[in-house]
Amino acid sequence: MDIESFEHWSLILGVGGLIAFMTFIMWDLAKQSKAGRFGTFILFTALGLGLLGFIIKTVLVEMVGQ
């Protein structure tokens, strides 16, 4: 495995792991604050939009770059 391939897969796994961890943090925050269904929905919507924007930006950069 060359260094470029290693960096590519490390980035994908690292960012994917961070996104999964942030999702867990949002879930734990909703559970500890006893937000209820609507509060959890709002929490995931508000904080999840930042994650969604990052994912969309990454996909668009890959599509435009090719």
Describe this protein's structure:
The structure is a single chain. With 66 residues, the protein is mainly α. The chain has helices at 3-32, 36-65. The protein has one domain (3-65). It is 91% helix and 0% strand. The longest helix is centred in the first third of the chain and has 30 residues, at 3-32. It is elongated, with a radius of gyration of 16 Å. The mean pLDDT is 89.
Write the layout of secondary structure elements.
Blueprint: H1 3-32, H2 36-65
Q: Measure the end-to-end span.
A: 23 Å
Structural class by sheet pairing and helices: mainly alpha
Rough outline: elongated
Unreliable spans:
none
Mean pLDDT: 89
Strand content: under 5%
Encode the helix/strand succession as letters: HH
Biggest sheet details: none
Count of individual helical segments: 2
Count of strand segments: 0
The value of Rg in angstroms is 16 Å
Number of domains: 1
The percentage helix is over 70%
